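Internal ticket - ligand job 264, adenosine-5'-triphosphate:
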Amino acid sequence: MIEISKVSKLFNPGTVDEKIALIGINLKLNPGDFITVIGSNGAGKSTLMNIISGVMKPDTGDVSIDGRVITQQPEHRRARWIGRVFQDPMAGTAPNMTIEENMAMAYKRGQARGFQIGVTKARRAIFKEQLAKLGIGLENRFKAKVGLLSGGERQALSLLMSTFTKPQILLLDEHTAALDPARAELITSLTETLVREMSLTTLMVTHNMEQAIKLGNRLIMMDKGRIILDVDAKQKKDLTVERLLGEFERISGRKLADDRVVLG
Ligand SMILES: Nc1ncnc2c1ncn2[C@@H]1O[C@H](COP(=O)(O)OP(=O)(O)OP(=O)(O)O)[C@@H](O)[C@H]1O
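stdout (structure tokens):
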């Protein structure tokens, strides 16, 4: 279980640039939970992701995995337990390395020190099998440099690589937002399949309201550093984009200000 307790984060405290990013966030993710996260601009969604993955430390509060507090653990030490896919397709893979080499690197992340990047025949067969599951022919382009792939292909590869070692938590940071609708649809359905097949505990930030409603078993809405709405699987079934926007207005007293919002 992943637990975020009483996490607060303030940027530039005591200056004119002071920004409240998170205020006393409490969130428990049970194994296999797939939570979608929506919210206004600057609500704190990315900061929450950054604190879970260890890119930033909170001012107060803790992050723990299965009862073990990891708040002070550096990012590279958590990499084995945490998978993350970013919005930018360039972010998750090494462009000058081949698909095979990228996969070997991702595989290594889950191994003890001393494991060589060299790819054995058996491992290559596993990689190919995994790639074939994506259904976009990447298994036939094993020696192609990743920089030559399209944005959608790179996101598919990033997704596969970040779930390779069955992370304790998968963080999806608007990972379909930079893609055209057809590619976004492909990555969304791959995400659903991988998460379901591996029972991955997942936190997904999205600006696509329909996607937030459709995917996962729980939805949270953030505003000004707080979680202002937490919808369970049962309530989620009856949710519509209209109702969701109405809820935001009712709770925050404002219309949802999100310059990237996609209604569906
Ligand atoms: N490194 C930083 N330095 C200073 N302020 C920051 C930093 N990162 C985030 N902030 C501020 O903290 C607040 C929360 O930002 P965050 O990026 O977490 O929000 P978000 O919900 O991801 O927003 P968006 O949907 O617009 O990307 C904002 O006011 C933002 O300006």
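Auto-summary: Strands lie at 2-11, 19-29, 34-39, 60-65, 68-69, 82-85, 169-173, 202-205, 218-223, 226-232. The domain at 2-81+167-252 is CATH 3.40.50.300 (Rossmann fold).
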